Amino acid sequence: MSKKFILSIIMLFSCNILLFAQTNESSMTGSSITIGNTELSLEQAIGIVLNQNLTLQSAKYDVIMSDTAYEKNMNKYGMDFNLEGGYLDQETPPTGSTLYSPTKLEQWDAAAYLSKKFETGTVISGGIKETYMKSNASGLYLIPNGTGANDVYEVSSDQWHQKPSLFVSIQQELLKNAFGFSERKQNNISENSVKMQRAAIINQLSGLVVSTLTDYWNITIQKSAVNTAQAALDSNKRVRDIIARNAKYGLSEAYDMNQYNSLVANSESNLKAAEQRYHEAVRKLLRTMNMPPETSVTGVTNLVDDMPVLDEEDALKTAFAKRVDYKNAELSLENAKMDLGVQENGVLPSLMVSLNVSTQGSGDTDQVADAHNDAFTGEYPTWQARAKLTYPLDNREAKANLRNSNLKYKQAELNLKNIKLEIRDDIINKMEQVKVQHEMLMKARTANSEAELYYQNVLKRFEHGKVTSVTMKIATDYMVQSRQQALNALVQYNVTLLLFDLAKNEIFERYHVDVEKYLKNI
Questions:
Q1: What pLDDT tens digit does each residue of the chain (522 aa) get?
Q2: Which residue of 12, 74, 102, 182 is 20 to 30 Å from 423, comparing CA positions?
Q3: What letter does residue 103 receive in the DSSP assignment?
């Protein structure tokens, strides 16, 4: 539950009271709010917020960007195109072997190839390489002539020579990260992290939706406070008029008029303050909805006083299936388990095997076609297989990672158990609060009924001068206070129902809000 929502609930409790007429209503359905000249359902109003609220629009982008780490991790599986080339100019001192090897070599080379890494850990590269070289190598070569003797030929390479080749290379790890074991686990961990981050952000969005609902309720509450302040002012004026009339017949004292003149003045101040709070509430809702501040807002709230069916087992089942904190704790445990497997694999030795296959041709620069034909036909293949074993004799880093991973897995288990207990207590507490608040609502209404009767009876006797102004004030204060308590009990009961829905993470279902639909609009 967001801090912003908690503050909003506190604000609800600090507000005055609702319209007097709402006290006796058993429920209100089809709630609406009028924005400008358009009447909207509460669901439509929330929809406007999801589409137009500036903070929410920014948060939507956070949801989209939540997969950045995952995409970065998956980037290593993309295919790369490589193009490289170079020039070599080399001179070596003459030796006894320079009869058959050059002392000067000039070479140009270029290569173009594709390489890709797969989730199995396999790395495949393949392409073409072209080499042009010229050297001063010359010497005598003995060639058998079939007669038992040898013919001697002098060969000179002081001209450009071409060597095209095609090649394919495959590398595979067989022990540590065998066939991509660790990488697949890391990919799953990264994917789960995206889910956790996205769920947490959407949970923040739900706080904005609830804040909108709170703002909507607050407008009705503040409007009711204005009506209440007006009713208190009218009541004090009425009593003051009775005192003025009774004073003519000697049934009231002059100081009674002083008292009620003061009460009327205070009531007028309270009315002005209530009107100001109402205007502030309207502006806050319009700001949340990103609408012009001069837009008029009126509406009714959707408050209920009936007791819902409370099923503890069903509520717990729903909470464990929908609450973000529990689902994220489960994903954290899953991640910790996969990471433990990665670290266990990490202490193994590395056995890397590779296979390189190439074909080549050769010829002078005037034999380009023949040289390439030799390379592409595979007439002169080359096969090379290699294996490399690496076994750290004291891999302290891998051992520390394995130890930490095992401890983090145990921590994740404890965290899941703790959250499960917290959710259980939270659901039970919220259910008990619903029951208690409903009972308090019924008691508050009974007290209000009695206070209303008391006020009416005292008012009749006061009109005939049979009770003092002090008694009349006590009756008025008691009546107003009881109305406030009854109406605040109604608000608090509905807030408790809302908190119960939030404890189960069903606030979206209750108000038919499809957050995913709005996220897809970007």
A1: 343 333 332 233 233 223 233 333 333 334 566 777 777 777 777 777 777 878 777 877 877 787 887 888 888 888 999 999 998 888 877 765 555 566 777 888 899 999 999 888 899 999 999 888 887 765 444 444 444 444 444 444 556 767 888 899 999 999 888 888 888 888 888 889 888 888 887 777 777 777 777 777 777 778 877 887 888 888 888 888 888 887 777 766 778 788 888 989 998 999 999 999 999 988 888 888 888 888 887 765 667 889 999 999 999 999 999 998 999 999 999 999 999 999 998 888 999 999 999 888 777 666 666 667 777 787 888 899 999 999 888 888 889 999 999 999 999 999 999 999 999 999 999 999 999 999 999 999 999 999 999 989 988 888 777 887 778 888 888 887 787 788 778 878 887 887 898 889 887 787 777 777 766 665
A2: 12
A3: S
Residue 420: CB partners within 8 Å, gap ≥ 6? 320, 326
Q: Is 110 helix (H, G, I), strand (E, B) or coil?
A: strand
What global pTM score does this model have?
0.68
| Domain layout of the chain by residue ranges | 3-24+32-69+187-335+402-519, 84-178+349-394
Tokens found for residue 419: 């959250």
One-letter identity of residue 245? R
- 320 contacts 382 by C-beta, under 8 angstroms: no
Alpha helices in 254-395 (DSSP H): 254-288, 312-322, 324-346, 368-377
Tokens 């801090």 sit at which residue?
3
Asked if residues 351 and 391 have their Cβ atoms less than 8 Å apart, the reply is no
- Listed in sequence order, the residues at least 6 apart from 198 whose beta carbon sits closer than 8 Å to its beta carbon are 63, 66, 67
Name residues whose C-beta falls within 8 Å of residue 426's C-beta, 6 or more positions apart in sequence: 319, 503
Cα distances from 288 to residues 215, 270, 461, in angstroms, run: 9, 27, 51
At residue 455, what is the residue type? Answer: Y
Q: How far apart are the first and last CA of the chain?
A: 26
d(CA 257, CA 280): 35
CB 86 within 8 A of CB 51: no
Alpha carbons 288 and 214: distance in angstroms, whole number: 11
Q: Which of 110, 106, 165 is nearest to 357 (CA)?
A: 165
Task: Tokens for 252, please give them.
Answer: 């009231």
